């Protein structure tokens, strides 16, 4: 039976580290840390995420600046706001919550954020740095996954790592971070043939495909570390991951629950990136 990886506890430890360093920066250098969070429209899931990000800012001692814009906001208006925030010295990090309404080009907005304030690490400059292993900002969810794997005491070097999902936000950067830690990495996706066979070879399996209960116990190698990035809402209103937990926990050595696994880590790593941004902008790091 697998041991549970407690994302709430690991994320609390990351936030405590950030809070301690933030207090030290304030006391010793008079430096404040600020995050601007921009939300456009009324998507309920985005609202929950943004509220959680604001709460996390308070908990670690950051200033948070929320910009809640109407659904009808034009791309030009949003780009104008991003440019104002790029120049605002109180703002160390800028986060534009995705998805944006359909009439706005997400790529144009991401490209407009100053790479120095791009705490999501979505800007092509930061994505490129992740490719070459020279990052200022780690992508939040993949970095959170790495921290969870680390918490199990697993050494990634030489291990077979399988990532299911190839999104720009999770799958692709996840593969790069595992590779950076000397994993042997395979990326699978919805069109992969012989998926079960590939998964059965995985010592470390990260699932981010966005389909409820997609990976079942019979696809998991005995003793594997299984990280479930999925967050799906079933018809009965219950949350579930991309991994069928009941069958998977019988095979894995460690497994993340949903909720309470990867979810809390994303916000903790966002806090860490915002602190890094503040330090870099102050010439400290
Ligand atoms: N929407 C879902 N996840 C994320 C994230 O990590 N960052 C932003 N900006 N939007 C999101």
TrEMBL record:
Tetrahydrofolate dehydrogenase/cyclohydrolase catalytic domain sequence ranges: 5-120
Alphabetical keyword list:
Amino-acid biosynthesis, Histidine biosynthesis, Hydrolase, Methionine biosynthesis, Multifunctional enzyme, NADP, One-carbon metabolism, Oxidoreductase, Purine biosynthesis
Xref: Gene3D superfamilies: Leucine Dehydrogenase, chain A, domain 1, NAD(P)-binding Rossmann-like Domain
**GO MF entry, a single one:** methenyltetrahydrofolate cyclohydrolase activity
What GO biological process, any one, is recorded here?
tetrahydrofolate interconversion
- The source's domain of life comes to Bacteria
Instruction: Identify its protein family.
Output: Belongs to the tetrahydrofolate dehydrogenase/cyclohydrolase family.
Protein name, entry field: Bifunctional protein FolD
Q: Which gene holds the coding sequence for this protein?
A: folD
């Amino acid at each position: 039976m697998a041991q549970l990886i407690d994302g709430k506890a690991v994320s609390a430890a990351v936030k405590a580290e950030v809070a301690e360093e933030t207090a030290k920066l304030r006391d010793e250098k008079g430096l404040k840390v600020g995050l601007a969070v921009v939300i456009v429209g009324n998507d309920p899931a985005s609202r929950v995420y943004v509220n959680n990000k604001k709460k996390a800012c308070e908990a670690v001692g950051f200033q948070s600046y929320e910009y809640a814009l109407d659904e009808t906001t034009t791309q030009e208006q949003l780009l104008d706001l991003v440019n104002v925030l790029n120049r605002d010295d109180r703002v160390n990090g800028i986060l534009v919550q995705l998805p944006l309404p359909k009439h706005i080009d997400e790529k144009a907005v991401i490209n407009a954020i100053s790479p120095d304030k791009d705490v999501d690490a979505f800007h092509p400059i930061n994505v490129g740095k992740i490719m070459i292993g020279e990052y200022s900002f780690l992508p939040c969810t993949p970095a959170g996954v790495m921290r969870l794997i680390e918490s199990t005491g697993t050494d990634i070097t030489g291990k077979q790592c399988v990532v299911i999902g190839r999104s720009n936000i999770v799958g692709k950067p996840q593969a790069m971070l595992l590779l950076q830690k000397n994993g042997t990495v395979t990326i699978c996706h919805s069109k992969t043939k012989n998926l079960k066979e590939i998964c059965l070879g995985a010592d470390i399996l990260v699932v981010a495909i966005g389909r409820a209960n997609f990976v079942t116990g019979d696809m998991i190698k005995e003793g594997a570390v299984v990280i479930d990035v999925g967050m799906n809402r079933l018809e009965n209103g219950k949350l579930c991951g991309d991994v069928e937990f009941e069958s998977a926990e019988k095979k894995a050595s460690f497994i993340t629950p949903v909720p309470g696994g990867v979810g809390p880590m994303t916000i903790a790593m966002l806090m860490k990136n915002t602190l890094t941004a503040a330090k870099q902008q102050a010439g400290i790091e």
